[in-house]
Amino acid sequence: MTVTSDDAELAGALATAAGELLLKLRADSSLTGKELGNAGDLQSNEFLLAELARLRPGDAVLSEESADDLVRLDADRVWIIDPVDGTKEYGISDHTDWAVHVALWERERDGTSGGLTAGAVALPALAVTYTTDGVPIAPANGLASVPRGDAPRVVVSGSRPPAFSDAVAAAIGGEVLAMGSAGAKAMAVVRGEADAYVHAGGQYEWDSAAPVAVAKSQGLWCSRTDGLALEYNQRDVYLPDLVICRPELAEAILEITRRG
Fold first, then answer.
1. Are residues 181 and 105 in the same domain?
2. Which of 6, 31, 107, 188 allows an S-S link to 76, with CB 3.0 to 4.6 Å?
3. How many CB atoms lie within 10 A of CB 34?
């Protein structure tokens, strides 16, 4: 990989390259299931850490697969990465709903706050990477795996769907669709395959940072289920809930999710 001054471009290149590594591992090794997922996490993490150390040596990194020494709390630039988002899905050969997340958090000039300034979500099995580069939202069904009708779609976790999933779908006259990784669900909204993604419980900063960065760059609504802002590079990285949706649906969805 070559040095680039553009952080969004770098995020995209890193996520794409890590995804290619993961596809090769899945195709060439005899590993399956959890063993494949563990090997993928390790190799992708090692690659991303090495490239960030080489290309952005002054930046800190928060990774799902590395110990957090909290040095990042004093840093002005922090990369937040998930080497394999959807490890379970990655370990199943015919699943495409897994991702690689690379996001950048930067401190504001006043030094008191910060936010996501660049990010990328690679969906390697679909051969596509979404970045915070301002590309317009793709037409519905551009990469849809399931044909859709006219009803709005709310994507949720297949293993841990929120208790309010059906109520959210009813509020917007839609239907619920289960899908794998957070990145896959968020990008389904970005490309128009779905209209909203809601989640409650069991996520951390690396699960949503890159998806939220990309979704925000596309003009989508992103918040916690109570409507408050999603904050990153916090001491406690547990960030269990979120709403990503088309802006016109936010009010109706939050009216439900605020109740828990």
1. no
2. 107
3. 11
Confidence of residue 94 (pLDDT cuts 50, 70, 90): confident
Instruction: Give backbone dihedrals phi and psi of 229, rounded to 5 degrees, phi first.
Output: -70, 150
Residue with tokens 């990989």: 1
Q: Which residues are annotated as a binding site for Mg(2+)?
A: 64, 82, 85, 207
C-alpha 154/C-alpha 242 separation (Å) is 13
Residues 93, 91: Cα–Cα separation, whole Å:
6
Do residues 115 and 82 make contact, with C-beta atoms less than 8 angstroms apart? no
Q: Which residues pair with 102 in a beta bridge?
A: 81, 120
Q: Which two tokens stand for residue 140?
A: 């519905």
- Contacts of residue 142, defined as CB under 8 A and 6 or more positions apart, other chains included, come to 191, 192, 193
Confidence at residue 140, expressed as pLDDT on a 0 to 100 scale: 41
In the predicted model, what is the mean pLDDT of residues 37-53? Answer: 97
Q: The domain spanning residue 183 has which CATH number?
A: 3.40.190.80
Domain count, the chain: 2
- Residue 224's alpha-carbon distances to 41, 134, 252, 253, 257, in angstroms, are 27, 23, 14, 11, 9
Task: Please name the amino acid found at residue 227.
Answer: G
Summarize the annotated binding site as residue ranges. Answer: 64, 82, 85, 207
Beta 221-223 vs 77-85: how paired, if at all? unpaired
Its domain, for residue 112, covers 7-131
The residue-averaged pLDDT of 148-174 equals 91
Q: Is 194 exposed, middle or buried (0-12, 13-18, 19+ CB in 10 A)?
A: buried
- Taking the C-alpha atoms of residue 124 and residue 16, their distance in angstroms, rounded to an integer, is 7
d(CA 65, CA 67): 7
